[in-house]
Amino acid sequence: MMRCLTLTKLIASTAALTLSSALLANDMIPGKKPDAPILITDATLYTVSSGVKQDHDLLIKDGKIAAIGQDLTAPTNATVINGEGKHVYPGLIGLTTTVGLVEIGAVRATRDMAETGRATPEVKAHIAFNADSEIIPTIRSNGITHVEVAPTGSGLNGQSSLMHLDGWNWQDALVKKGTGMHLRWPRAGINKSFWETRTPKKQKEDNAKALKQLSDTFEQIKAYHKARSANANAAIDVRWEAMRPVLDKTMPLFVHANDYRQIESAIHFAKQQDIKIVLVGVGDADKAIELIKSNNIPVVFTSAWGHPMRSDEGLDRAYKTPAVLEQNGISYALAINGNWNVRDLPFAAGQTVAYGVSPSTALKSVTLEPAKILGVADKMGSLEVGKQANIVISQGDLFDHLTHKVDTVMIEGRSIDLNNRHKQLYDKYSKKN
Amino acid sequence: MNKISHSAFAATLAVMGCQTVLADQTSHVYGITDRSSNKVAFTHATVMIEPGKSIKDATLVIDNGRIMSVKRGGKAPADAKTVDLSNHVVYAGFIDPFSHYAFGKNESAFKWGEPPKYQGDRKGGNAWNDAIHAEVDWVDEFKADKKSAKNYIKNGFTSVQTAKIDGIFQGQSVTVSLGDGLPNELIYNANARHFGSFNKGSSKQSYPSSLMGSIALIRQTLSDSAWYQNAKGKTDHLITGEPVEYNDALENLNELSRVGMMFDPEGHLSAMRADPLFDPYRVDVAYIADGHEYTRINDIKALNATFVVAPNFPKKPDVSSFEAQLDTSLAELRHWERAPANPAVLAENKIPFAFSHYGLKNTGDFWKQIKVALKHGLSEKDALAALTTTPAKLAGIDKDAGQLKPGMMADLVIADGNLFKDGKIKQVYLQGKKHEMKPLFTSALAGEYGFNIGNDLLTLKLQQTEKKVTGEIVKGDENVKIKLHDHSDNQMQFSANLSKLGIEGVYRFSTRLINETLTGFALTPAAEKIALNAPRMVPQSNNDNDAETKDDTAAEFVSQVTLPNRAFGLTAEPEQQNIHIKNATIWTSDKQGVIENGDMLIRNGKIDKVGKNLSTPGGYDVIDATGKHVTAGIIDEHSHIAISKGVNEGSDAITAEVRIGDVVNPNDINIYRALAGGTTSAQLLHGSANPIGGQAQVIKLRWGSDAEGMKFKQAPGSIKFALGENVKQSNWGDKFTIRYPQTRMGVETIVRDAFLRAQEYKASFEKFDDLSGSMQDRTAPPRKNFRLDTLNEILESKRFVHSHSYVASEILSLMKIAEDFDFRIQTFTHILEGYKVAEEMAKHGASASTFADWWAYKFEVYDAIPGNTCLMMKNGVNVSVNSDSGDLIRRLNTEAAKSINYCGMKPEDAIKMVTINPAKQLKVDRYTGSLTEDKHADFVIWSGNPLSIYTKVEQTWIDGRKYFDRAADANMRVALAEEKNKLIQKVLGGDKSSSNGKDSNGKESNGDNSKTFASNERYLLKEEPAWHCEDNFDFWHWQQTRQDAHSHGQHYQGAH
To answer: Could you list the residue ranges that cross the membrane (chain B) (predicted)?
Structure first.
């Protein structure tokens, strides 16, 4: 095997960059497009699409994976990364996050994730995405290269977009807009928790009312769609205009729902309206196996560390639900709804393994499955020739705190500065005494 | 205060009784003086003179509102009006010992969004806190309320102990007759019990805003009352230079030990919380039950108190479909099945109780529900006692009411049979005055009468029910039915075709019962009158239905009762075992480090030996732990699980008097879930709403025990302080801008000021002690102040400070205060900028308990870093990671592991961050926190490396008892699912053992009361939320304004 030990190690240059930015106390600077190919050698490749390959090389050219194999020849000028003993993964993808939409939870001025009103399909999350958020570098340094940013709130919240985590601004970071329309499904069932003050009867009435409102809204949208399709000059309503791709099935509706009854009514609603949906949350997925399976609904499970939803349920019910899905042949993506805590995504996947998910499915749930749900599986989500070189190299198993140690992260072959606010402050105060 | 003394009053009552139905004593008489007789003799009655004791065919004579005599057989006095009560039962009038009759309940004046109110409204000699109304003597406000009385009387109640139900000390109640008339004549006991609760009711004052705040207020107030007795009228210029204020509320409370208290704790767990408050003052407290007493009956029994029970049983939970069932917990189903047996369980355990209307939305179901209770095992005797003798004692009128004995009030309930079976209330006498609901049914005509027509001897057999008379005329073997035309009590007209008896034609009879003879005439077919004199040969038979018979359809249960009574509750405390754990990787968190292939011996709840290749002593169980890891039990420095009704007393900047230990909630499922994550001990902290918060409570997670049993007895006292955004109310909304402090400057100052006050206070006691005996007699002693006492405990290093803190500046300030007052901050909790001042902390001697990686949720945590742990540790600070949540307390092991990947901590140090380090912070490291010989056997068996994400807890042990076992948990789930299915079948009526038949309308009934279900909070099972530091809201105001909950939803979204 050919070794170009004389060539500068990418690692070393990354370290240098780290040092300089710490000294300048500056923002991390987005990575530069490399001039030369990059070859990772003798590593364990977690390809997702074709298993785990020990002692393999991976060649990156023009931001894409150019070759995977053993004993690949390094092209001239290539930067070689010695991957011996290292674990190489495709970049992790975080679904339905608010990364970049909120900086400090309690400070209203920094919150841009929920527009006022119960139906705001017209708003697009990427518009508010702050590429300079201090949170972003803390997430990508754990191996997450992409996040879907999505509006929150109640009702019909707006449109999500896929961003990469190393942009100069939102336009630069935007990978795909309109990845989905987000809807918080109306409550179902009787809430008996401490803070619910309505009577069961009133709750039932309110639940029914909310469902009726939702279907009324859709009737209105459909009528608009029909009018617009018939007459291109019809006046534009920005709200309903935004919903037309949903009706055309070119944009999925992400239905955030946890309770079985929500899941059940959402699936039937989708059938009736003839739209594509993705279920998000899905705490009761294990109670709705047949429904989900027979209707082929994509699932984004968000409660890796969830509490049991009901007091009688086993304490590990949420932990085990992904395994139940896997056992029943339902593919799912795993996500963490949130912002700063999205960096826990690899550990969330690891947690599902502790409770029965196979390591390959766990890996897939944070890489290829999210890519599929976002409609970008042809570009990312696995280590495959032709796909973007979104690469994570860890010294050990990425999914366990004991071994997780990320050396290198690349987005389309660009090496990412793994420094962040936390490391900077750590370095600063390491020097205090 | 000019009330009649108790004994004087009794005499007055006796005299008054004689005058009751006449004019009252003090008014002028207008018009003609009423001298009509009011002597009544009830004859042939079954008289229940007391529970379990009756006289049949008795004559009961009343006169002037009193019972004159009760005798078997007996004769009506010549001058008495006679009422024939054949077939009727007479009971003593029922007494409701907890009522707001004539006064009403609190009307909440509070509206969400109002600014806080820190000062009480003072007037007269009232108390400082608006929730205290102890100065009110409700007798002064009393007058009859005919409309409300009707609801009571229809169920047989004749008197109530009543007050306005509002606030914490609600004032002194009065026991009154439910009759109508001059108040002066209706008052049975002007010195009845005080009423109280933990609920501040209509008070708009912010303090107290939590259960523990209410408890603290009661503790202080009772102490103040005792002090006031000693201090009033004395000079105290020697001590404080201020005169003792006039305080009527404190004065009035001094009589508590004499008159007792009716206390509504709003939950059986809170009854146990109330009892220790009143005990030191020897107050006899009766508690209002919540219907769940059976779930912790031994604890309830230990209170040695009387309970007041509203017969209000839960409606069937909705399990009609898969969907509906999702919202119904096993706990609800169990309670549905068992609640009707609660009165029976109280009775079996010899816990006296009285029935009450209190809490019933629909009093029309009262008797229906009582019968449900009987069906579930309550005896008639106990039921009657609960309506008469027991409440009579509670209301202080047992000499005058509750039984049917000469001299007692003529308060009677007359029923047409056994009330606990089919009998219905017909009439109620209040102070000898009749209140008629339905005319008495005497079945006066029933019997057999002999007469003849011509030479034919005939027998008229009459049966009589309430609605009709039926009968037949019999001759030999033949009989014909009579056709009734009209009848009243003692006369009837009927006809009969006698042809079948050999007497041709239809005869018409007009008769009247005179002296046991049916007298009148018969009209022959030829319209001739034949005289009729038919003596009654066989008298009516008394329906002998007062004997107690065992209901053969008595309820059978399919549910378990566990501790706590919910899914995953235990039937018994886990046994203490002597065990030998073999071949484990043992993380000792001690000098022995990590022992590969190690052994550990557990004996009598303690760690006996830790090492290698130990031999198994006789009688030890062996656990082969090959491939497994063992650590000390995980300890959480900062938790808010297992806390009832509010985690913050955020109504004041300093609330050192409140105690989390007063409100430990042993029913919280988070305890069990935390055990499953390996946690064995936790410090339950007050929230972070104020600079000096409440006292903390360290617990061991002994799932299944009661609140007291949870407490880590050896743990020294600790207290929560808080700094920064929360205490300066940064995120509380625009209304909260007036409380001092609003800045970090103010936080520092108010804490300093508090300690100065504490020193001053302590000095005042020393000054008093220095006075001569005679001077002490003349001088008002200083008033005990629980808040300042607590602060002095801190100054004396008997109580240790755990301070919520984030930024470097405030950390330094607090350490400076402590140093100036010569004590040390024990632990800074959260301490996300600890890494910036780690060296200073180490020098001060403070330890740190932090989040593994939380940040960015508010401004003061924007500089938080996950390497905080390592940097502090490097500087010699004792560091732990904590949960502050019901989620992270289940996985503190992997929280600790984050320091391995974020800052390269050694695995052994990471484990110490959740074992021995927090043990030191809680000052329990002598007992737990490491696997060291002689420490408590608190440990965890893990499936693998405890720091790995892939590892699970297999067993969790506390004191050598196995509190969690993953395999047993799996089995338990199967059993619970079976139990739940059985209960669901029972609800659906598919199970034969379902004895809960149908009610009169053909509807399924288990004493269901759909009208009361949704609206009666106290009978619903509501889960306490998982509290957070910032969950600062007014629990009591919340409870009162339950209908506009949406507007304050944000109050629950706390973080840290």
So the answer is: none
pLDDT score for B565: 96
Nearest alpha carbon to residue B766 among B226, B224, B238: B238
ipTM over 0.85: yes
Cis omega (within 30 of 0) for bond into B564: yes
Residue B222 token pair = 């009772």
Query: pLDDT tens digits, residue range A117-152?
Result: 999 999 999 999 999 999 999 999 999 999 999 999
List the single residue in B900, B950, B1022 with the smallest CB-CB distance to A353.
B950
Structure letter (DSSP) for residue B340: G
Q: How far, in Å, CA of B976 to CA of B980, rounded?
A: 6
- Which candidate from B836, B903, B980 shows the least CB-CB separation from A312? B980
Does the beta carbon of A196 lie under 8 angstroms from any beta carbon of chain B? yes
Q: Which of B617-621, B937-941, B961-965, B1046-1050 has the lowest mean pLDDT?
A: B1046-1050
CA distance A287 to A283: 9
Q: A1-91+381-433 with A92-378: one CATH topology?
A: no
Helix then strand count (H, E) for chain A reads 12, 16
pLDDT at B43 over 60: yes
Q: Residue A310: which of B329, B863, B907 has the nearest Cβ?
A: B329
Instruction: With cut-offs at 50, 70 and 90, classify the pLDDT of residue B992.
Output: very low
Domain residue spans in chain A?
A: 1-91+381-433, 92-378
Give the CATH number of domain A92-378: 3.20.20.140
- Residue of chain A minimizing CA distance to B898: A401
Amino acid at A38: I
> Which of B839, B866, B891 shows the shortest C-beta gap to A433?
B839
- Please name which of B337, B344, B365 lies closest in space to residue B293, comparing C-alpha atoms: B344
What does chain A come to in residues? 433
How do the domains of chain B map onto residue ranges? 447-538
A192·B902 Cβ contact <8 A: no
> What is this structure's pTM?
0.90
Write the class of the CATH domain A1-91+381-433.
mainly beta
- CATH T-level topology, domain B447-538: Lipocalin (2.40.128)
Give the model confidence (pLDDT) of B130-184 as tens digits: 999 999 999 999 999 999 999 999 999 999 999 999 999 999 999 999 999 999 9
Q: Which residue of B has its CA nearest to A103?
A: B856
Are the CB atoms for B307 and B289 separated by under 8 Å? yes
CA distance B1037 to B213: 13
Q: Which of A317, A152, A159, A189 is nearest to A264 (CA)?
A: A189
B377 CB contacts (<8 Å, ≥6 apart)? Answer: B341, B344, B345, B348, B554, B555
Chain A contact set for B859 (CB, 8 A)? 104, 106-107
- pLDDT per residue over B250-302, tens digit each? 999 999 999 999 999 999 999 999 999 999 999 999 999 999 999 999 999 99
Q: Does A260 touch chain B (CB under 8 A)?
A: yes
Reference B669, options B576, B558, B570, B575; nearest CA is B570
DSSP 3-state percent helix, strand, coil across chain B (nearest 5): 30, 25, 45
- Interchain CB distance below 8 Å, B948 and A402: yes
- The HSE-up count of residue B669 (CA atoms within 13 Å, CB side) is 21
What CA–CA distance (Å, rounded) separates B435 from B150? 9
